[in-house]
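Board notes, transcribed. Complex of a protein with protoporphyrin IX containing FE.
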Amino acid sequence: MSPADRISVEALEADPYPFYAHLRREAPVCFVPAVNLWMVTRWADVEFVAKMPDLFSAEVTASPVERTFGKPTILTTDGPVHKELRAGIDPKYKPKPVAAYIDGLVRPIAEEYLSSLLKRGGGDLMAEYFEPISTLALARSFGFHDIDMPTLRRWFYGLAQGAINFENDPTRQAIGDAVSAEISEKAEAIFARLEREPDDSALSHMLHDGMPDGQTRPRAFLLPTVKVTLLGGMQEPGHGAGSVLVGLLTHPDQMRDVREDLAALLPLAVDEGLRWVAPIGTQTRQARSDIELGGAVIPAGAMVGAFVSSASRDESRFSDPDSFNIHRREGPHAAFGFGQHFCSGRWFARDQVIAALRVLLENCREITLVPENPPVFRGWEFRAPTSLQVTLG
Ligand code: HEM
């Protein structure tokens, strides 16, 4: 049996990077039974897959995302329907509007959660700082103002269970389905109000932007995309921020450099953290016909994972790619994806992570990992530290 036949979901969850390095060297396009995907692991091939919708369709027959959230989703359509969905979601999250509102949105949430942590001298920065900021910032930007934090946290864990259920586990599916139905009910009520009284929330832009006067996009058309965006948007900036901070805390020399020049080096540290540990591992596609790539033939209809996580560690672009180094100047990472489906929230996410880390670093002179409880990374499709126990001073 080859390593690709032997690898298990558990091994990938624990640490997929050595396996990706092996595939990049030995079998850069390779079927991996454990996850039922053709893994594409080199930068050039990942970019090729994501930028060639005529060969690799975003519409996949056995999509766990559609099974849980319904159709069409922005992630799983191409062509005019995809364009229409982007026209609704993009306006709220373009770089200019984001720059105007991000600090006012993130800072009050960050300061509230940090003051409670400081009173206790520390705690778990994942559960008690980064995840709440990420979740509340996205929910508020969307227009879900009165949904409390425990409900939002339950939503994103439930949505994730459905979205990554490549192995068709019925328990995971049931959790995803229940949360999906709950979100539909809440969103329908908000849509009903926004149809009459538009505002600056993402939900309102989705209904109204680019539509002829007096018309709105149908709610049922938007709901699956609302869920996909909630999932990516609520969870991933918090995960990314945690990985960046682990990189800095385990490299005190780099942390010192960042503290000495927050304005210039914090954004670079954020980009390096997202390269080092990609919060989202793949862009998933389906081969439209038999396609030869990387020395293999992907059969028509097969599911293909373009592994942005692996591309960001491709040694043909990054020297010593497994190490965290904020001073590398080797070009962009792949964490936000390529092609027409590149992340709509990339500016919102990056600026939010910078703002959350800035509030933390400005207010804490000492951030120290708790030695008995070191951070442990988990996940291959969604990867982050499971906890980040620190003392703060
Ligand atoms: C660090 C945080 C984030 C990372 C690493 C990330 C990564 C990605 C990646 C890799 C894709 C491409 C998926 C594919 O093609 O299959 C994507 C798509 C997407 N992301 Fe993000 N994302 C992040 C945060 C956000 C946030 C905060 C939002 C909310 C505004 C968001 C909204 C979206 C949407 C709507 C799509 C689908 C775009 C499309 O299909 O056209 N993401 N993201």
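Residues 74-75, 86, 89, 93, 138, 229, 232-233, 236-237, 240, 274, 279-280, 283-284, 308, 335-337, 341, 343-345, 348-349 surround protoporphyrin IX containing FE (CB under 6 Å). The chain has a mean pLDDT of 95.
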